[in-house]
Amino acid sequence: MSIAYTYETDFSLANEPRYTNWLTSCAVRLSIRTMDLVYAFMDDNALLALNKKYLGHNTFTDIITFDDTIGSDLKANIAISVDRVKENAAIHKVDFTNELCRVMAHGMLHCVGYTDKSVEDVAKMRQAEDQLIHLFHVEQNPSDNVC
User: Fold this and answer.
1) Phi first, then psi: what are they for 41, rounded to 5°?
2) Is the pLDDT of residue 1 over 90?
C-alpha cells in the first residue's frame, strides 16, 4: 500500500502517519487489494484550473479524483482544495479536520464505485464516509473526538 501527500499550499497534514494508518485501514475495510494513492492539497485557484482543464467545469470544488483503479487495485490522484474544505467546515459547523477526513474518504470511495449523482447515491456516499470516519476514531485514536 502506497500513500503519498503533496502540498501546493501553506497547509500540511500535522501527522501524515496518522492519516496513512487510517487510509490503510479504510482500504482493508473496502476490500482494496493494492493501493497507489496520492493526495494533492492545493488552494481554490489551483483546483479550479484542474477542474477547467480536465472536466470542463468553471466552478470551485473541494475535490477532484483522477481514478485509474482496476478492480480491487486502487490507483488514484486525489486533488483537494483546502480553501473549500475550510469553507465547507464552517458552513456545516464541523471541525476542519473532520471535514478534511470526509473529503479524503470521499475520494477513495469514488475509486471503489461510490457515486454522488443522485439523491440516493449521495445518501449512500455519506453513510460510507461516516463509517470510514468512525473507523478513524475507533482504530486510530479512540480517545480523540476529532479526525
Assistant:
1) -100, 130
2) no
User: Residue 54 sits in which domain range?
Assistant: 2-140
Distance (Å, whole) CA 13 – CA 57? 28
Burial class (CB in 10 A: 0-12, 13-18, 19+), 10: exposed
How many structural domains is the chain composed of? 1
Q: Is 55 left (phi over 0), alpha (psi -120 to 50) or beta?
A: alpha
What φ, ψ does residue 137 adopt, rounded to 5°? -65, -45
CATH code of the domain covering residue 60: 3.40.390.30
Whether residue 103 has pLDDT greater than 90: yes
- Whether 93 maps to a domain, the answer reads yes
Q: Look at residue 73 and give its three-state secondary structure.
A: strand
CA–CA distance from 98 to each of 20, 51, 102, 129, 137 (Å)?
A: 15, 24, 6, 11, 10
Q: Decide if 147 is inside a domain.
A: no
